[in-house]
Amino acid sequence: MAGRLTLVCCGATEATRRGAFPRDEPLEPAALAQAQKLAGNLPRADRVWHGPALRAVQTVAALGLHGEAVEALRDQDFGTWAGRRLAELDPADLAAWVSDPATAPHGGESLNDLRHRVSALLKESLGLSGHTLAVTHPSVIRAAVCAVLEAPPQGFWSVDVEPLGLTRFTTDGRRWALRIASL
């Protein structure tokens, strides 16, 4: 059973521009305009999913789509770090979080917890045929790439996801594969 999954990163917010951990905040006006331009270039989808955050919902709307909120596509919970820049954090807490995927010193979600959540969604989606388009967050996309490539936890930090970027996967019903596609 062949299936496709396209993950679309939600548009930029004020936190993106400030280099801060995101809160549940709206898209910047420029991101709305960029999403509207992207709308005509998206492949046809049999189903549309999105994370529950405002920025994901607004991205879906700006793309001219209607979809279903899927809890597993929510952004990583950054706990007390939400809204704060890296420079504002305790360097020891930040180092622990980056070096140990089981650590969540900020009271949020550990990298391991995020990876398990995203891996479970990918496993549940293996049997879907057709094309699923899902609007989500950079952390979810990084976790999905690492899960599909069976990369170690530290590989998460080597995946760069830009706002409104597309990441494509295919499945034969048994496993997912990362798909590098032409324009």
Give the arrangement of secondary structure elements.
Elements: E1 3-9, H1 14-18, H2 29-39, E2 47-50, H3 54-62, E3 68-69, H4 91-99, H5 111-125, E4 130-136, H6 138-149, E5 166-171, E6 176-179
Parallel strand pairs: 1-4, 2-3, 2-4
Antiparallel strand pairs: 1-5, 5-6
Helix pairs in contact: 2-3, 5-6
Q: Can you give keywords for this protein?
A:
183 residues; alpha/beta; six-stranded mixed sheet; 16% strand
Could you give the count of β-strands? 6
In terms of per-residue confidence, which ranges show pLDDT below 50 for 5 or more consecutive residues? none
Distance between the termini: 25 Å
DSSP strand (E) fraction? 15-25%
Largest sheet composition: 6 strands, mixed
Order of helices and strands: EHHEHEHHEHEE
The backbone outline, from C-alpha atoms, is globular
Classification by helices and strands: alpha/beta
Task: Please state how the strands of the largest beta sheet are arranged side by side.
Answer: 3-2-4-1-5-6
Q: How confident is the prediction overall: mean pLDDT?
A: 95
Radius of gyration: 16 Å
Query: What is the helix fraction of residues, given as a range?
Result: 25-40%
Helix count? Answer: 6
Explain this structure.
The chain has 183 residues and is of the alpha/beta class. The protein contains six helices and six strands, in the order E-H-H-E-H-E-H-H-E-H-E-E. A six-stranded mixed beta sheet has the order 3-2-4-1-5-6. Helix 2 (29-39) crosses helix 3 and helix 5 crosses helix 6 (138-149).
